[in-house]
Specification:
An 8-stranded parallel beta sheet has the order 1-2-4-6-8-9-10-11, with helices on one face. The protein has a 3-stranded parallel beta sheet with strand order 3-5-7. It has 3 helices and 11 strands, in the order βαβββββββαββαβ. It folds into 2 domains: 101 residues, no CATH class; 57 residues, no CATH class. Helix content is 13%, strand content 28%. It is an alpha/beta fold. This is F-box/LRR-repeat protein 15/At3g58940/PEG3-like LRR domain-containing protein. InterPro entries: FBL13/AtMIF1-like, LRR_dom_sf, LRR_FXL15/At3g58940/PEG3-like. It holds the Pfam family LRR_At5g56370.
């Protein structure tokens, strides 16, 4: 059997957790883990959990809206380079700063978006879907490529906000991400028009 001590890739799907202890025990014996994928579904009874893996480089976390027992969770991965977070639950989350993050896919409900977005400001490539804008004081000075999903009601205002705080943006994609293909596309005709031209739209010549 391959010892967990040397495990670098781990997929946890269709695993039911009664509490956080087995999950933490598993992560604690994987000191060189680099790639982690976790799915939390409707049969979970865990109330809190933490992903604290200093060696982690890539994380995919999917929290189903059927995961009703979950009360909160925390992500503490300071070396993370890629994050894919799909959280459709109503659970508060704490995502700590990830200064090495280069690419992120964020699909979250409105209550979580400010905390999550505020932790991924170092990214160069971002895909985002959210029901709401994320508040003031957040700047994406490294962001070059933005993909915005338009299945949510406030997509147009979220776009305006990203244009305002992403001075180095070079590529913009506006579409409906694959996972939301069966959802209704919202009209982006109504939005709070910016009072000035965003810096990323000005000529750099």
């Amino acid at each position: 059997m391959f010892p967990p001590l040397f495990l670098k890739t781990l997929l946890l799907e269709l695993v039911v957790y009664e509490d956080d202890e087995p999950f933490q025990a598993l992560l604690s014996i994987c000191p060189v883990l680099e790639d982690l994928e976790v799915w939390l579904g409707e049969f979970e009874s865990v109330q809190e959990f933490t992903i604290n893996v200093p060696s982690l480089r890539k994380l995919f976390l999917h929290v189903s809206h059927y995961c009703s027992s979950l009360e909160r969770y925390e992500i503490d991965t300071p070396c993370l380079e890629y994050l894919q977070l799909a959280d459709w639950s109503d659970s508060p989350c704490l995502v700590k700063n990830m200064p090495k993050l280069k690419k992120a896919h964020v699909d979250v409900l409105s209550f979580a978006v400010k905390n999550v977005i505020g932790s991924v400001t170092s990214v160069k490539h971002l895909t985002v879907c959210s029901e709401d804008v994320y508040g003031d004081g957040i700047v994406f000075d490294q962001l070059q490529h933005l993909e915005l999903c338009i299945c949510q009601v406030d997509s147009s205002n979220l776009l305006a906000q990203f244009l305002k705080v992403s001075p180095n943006l070079r590529e913009l994609g506006i579409s409906q991400i694959d996972l939301h293909a069966d959802l209704k596309t919202n009209d982006m005709g109504f939005w709070n028009q910016p009072s000035s031209i965003p810096e990323c739209l000005l000529s750099k010549s």
